[in-house]
Specification:
Layout lengths: L1 H5 L5 H11 L45 H15 L23 H7 L6 H8 L14 H10 L48 H12 L2 H14 L6 H6 L6
Helix pairs in contact: 4-5
């Protein structure tokens, strides 16, 4: 399968799906749901120029430190844990880490898929019988990216649906998801980047970005972080890629 991918006989999307399957990830388990990378960093331009490397996320870095200013905070946290200044673990069972949360978990999957069943019901069950407050919901792709850039503790990567399933971006069931506290904006369909004119257009362009020359040349760097040798040990520490 690796050789087929290297020879461009299968797409980046198909290769990632195969890797997730081989790693034991499955649509049948929200705690081990398939994980895909954020691949773009431009969610504000009127047009998306896939020939410009600047529109792409740096795939060699974990999402928590794609914004260079977060790297210092993440390093200092790891060092402080290493010295046990802010970290009491009397049994010595917990290893030091850069991130206290994870790039893929059940709550994150429900967060993205809140508008489609059965994830709506699962989300409501998780939130004790109601929707979470609107400000914490997935309401905008540009705002979600900006939150990742501003907060090194938010390290959610994407799910495969971002590359083929436009319906998850629409509130087709008319759920009352509340309104944002500051702007009073009602949360309904997901707000798209300016360069996407509809959910279908977003999926089309996002999938095109995934199969672009830039991503094809750099995807292995992200695979090293998630599925490869930078998951654990000294390589993970050096890459700022150690998770709780």
């Amino acid at each position: 399968i690796f050789q087929k991918w290297v020879n461009r006989e299968i797409s980046n999307f198909d290769y990632l799906i195969q890797l997730n399957t081989m790693a034991g990830r499955t649509y049948n388990d929200l705690a081990q749901y398939p994980v895909f990378p954020w691949i773009l960093r431009d969610y504000t331009s009127e047009e998306l120029d896939l020939n410009n490397p600047a529109v792409f996320r740096d795939l060699s870095k974990p999402i928590g430190v794609v914004n260079e200013k977060n790297a210092k905070t993440v390093k200092e946290k790891y060092i402080s844990l290493f010295r046990y200044e802010n970290f009491e673990d009397p049994l010595g069972m917990i290893d030091k880490f850069h991130y206290g949360t994870h790039y893929s978990n059940a709550a994150g999957v429900m967060h993205y898929l809140i508008r489609v069943e059965p994830f709506t019901t699962l989300h409501i069950q998780l939130q004790s019988g109601r929707f979470d407050c609107a400000d914490r919901q997935f309401h905008s792709i540009p705002a979600t990216w900006q939150a990742l850039m501003d907060n090194p503790n938010d390290v959610k990567e994407l799910i495969p649906e971002f590359f083929y399933f436009p319906e998850f971006l629409e509130n087709q069931n008319g759920f009352n998801l509340g309104q944002l506290q500051m702007s009073k904006e009602v949360v309904n369909d997901v707000v798209l980047p300016k360069w996407a004119h509809s959910p279908e257009d977003f999926i089309y362009k996002h999938r095109k970005a995934l199969e672009s020359e830039y991503v094809s040349a750099h995807l292995h760097e992200w695979i090293d972080l998630i599925f490869g040798y930078k998951q654990r040990g000294p390589a993970a520490v050096e890459a700022l890629n150690v998770f709780y």
